[in-house]
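Q: Hi! New to this. If I give you a protein sequence and the SMILES for glutathione, can you show me the bound structure?
A: Yes, paste them in.
Q: Okay, here:
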Amino acid sequence: MKLIGSLTSPFVRKARVVLAEKKIDYEFEIDSPWTAENQVANVNPLGKIPVLVLDDNTVLFDSRVIVEYLDNVAPNNKLMPGPNRERSEVKRWEALADGMCDAAALVFLERKRPVAQQGTEWLARQNEKIIRSLQFMCDELGDNTWCMGTHFSLADVAVGCALGYLAFRFPEIDWREKHPNLARLYDKLMRRPAFVETIPQG
Ligand SMILES: N[C@@H](CCC(=O)N[C@@H](CS)C(=O)NCC(=O)O)C(=O)O
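A: Thanks. Here is the predicted structure of the protein with glutathione bound:
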């Protein structure tokens, strides 16, 4: 199978971390919808990454669909629990982490526009989503070892990718200082090869 994506996207990182945690071989094709002459829209009409191309050329997107597929394609190192209630909790963590990344990516893009054209209220609205999400993550994690308690899961992968993206693009948001338990979680994740090998760069 082939994964299409960039070295900076937190959604692509989530898919790459899951591929590594599950020890699944894949080809990584670097492409980004923000580069000239990119081919992303040829495989995903939404023009977004990541995209997973299966061996029979079936195309999967978005990242949540991809990681759920990957978790089920190999029985080892399960990242999503079977029971409905726990599974929904993991998916809620993932929705929260992804939603925080959506807001952060919107801020990043808006800030690239000329200052006079930037929507101040709209930027503040996105920033509030980020700040609230961090607080929610902090409260829910508490003193637990992992997001779901004692078991490492997709929730930790998603949260780790979101925190890593903030650290990469928004060093001024000091979530480490404000939320030491999130820093502890991220540091623990950064001891895993899957996270070390996918640190955002570019
Ligand atoms: N919900 C999607 C979000 C993917 C996404 O927004 N990817 C960004 C890169 S970080 C992208 O491709 N943006 C291009 C665009 O919005 O046109 C997923 O989880 O895969």
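A: The longest strand covers residues 2-5. Let me know if you'd like me to explain how to read the tokens.
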